[in-house]
Design brief:
Bound molecules: (2S)-2-hydroxybutanedioic acid
Strand order of the largest sheet: 1-2-3-4
Helix content: 40-55%
Largest sheet: 4 strands, parallel
Order of helices and strands: HEHEHEHEHEEEEEHHHHEEEH
Shape: elongated
Amino acid sequence: MKEKQDGNENGNKETQTQKGERKKERKKKERKKKERKKERKKEKTERKKERLCRVKNGRKGGKSEPIRVLVTGAAGQIAYSLLFSIAKGDVFGKDQRSSPLTRRTWPSTTWTVAILVGSMPRKEGMERKDLLKANVAIFKSQGAALEKYAKKTVKVLVVGNPANTNCLIAAKSAPSIPKENFSCLTRLDHNRARSQVAMRCGVPATHVKNVIIWGNHSSTQYPDVHHCLVNMSGSELACFEAVKDDAWLNGEFIATVQQRGAAVIKARKLSSAMSAAKAICDHMRDIWMGTAEGEFISMGVYSSGNAYGVPEDLIYSFPVQIKDKSWKIVEGLTINPFSKSKMEATAEELIDERDTAVSFLGV
Ligand code: LMR
């Protein structure tokens, strides 16, 4: 009996101890639960903050919208440098998946950007317009494919030569995509002009800004430095003042830039590749990110109602500034008679190319 009582007493005592321990355990669990809840709340707030930040930076719904980039001629020598640069974030920003997710592709309605590189390349002794017949047909069908399959917001950059006229033909073959979405590459010439001035002044190319390439990506292009500024030991000088050699700027400099593509072909037996890829990246990065305050760059865009009297319905290289992925021709630049005549000569060549292309294709 005593044993039982003890047992009972002991049993009751044990139960109370156990009860106490269970209580302690429960409290511990509750504390942990509260902590987890607090942590989850904190994480949720962080995620919300990130999402808002991404939305603010132009991405939808908290998930980053993939930027789908179409590159034609992707097995060629320009794309050899270009694809890697795009994939590692030189164009659309570093906040990208870093591995080059390249693949052969099919028509898609989701292209954000189309970089049309593939075309018959120029050989030694040829002018770019000698490629007209072979290449405008390619760009007519590529324009038609974009019309059929691409987003209406797609940004199209034409690189294959003769780039301006190919670009015009592609744009005409895609009538439902705004003409402003099409541009052609003259950034290669722009970069060449910049580096010629920089070498002459003994400064890095980054110290030279606002050179202009007017007109055609051909030997009639006009590299204009009348509005160019050079940073010499911290002060910005007008290019003519910095170079101190007007004869060179009005003569050899222009010819060097106009003939640079041919000089590269002569030296390499192949047309430019890495510099072209770099220029493509510069061009598309500026479309994407905008141009720096107070700076302008050159690109071939559709001429319509411009202040410089450039004939309508051409893809002509102008100085442009870019904001929110839209370009605007820089207005109010004074044009002297020397510049005016050079701008007209290159426009005439473009009119001629356009008319020849249209007669080939009937667009
Ligand atoms: C260049 O300028 O280097 C390219 O457009 C290739 C060419 O045909 O000159």
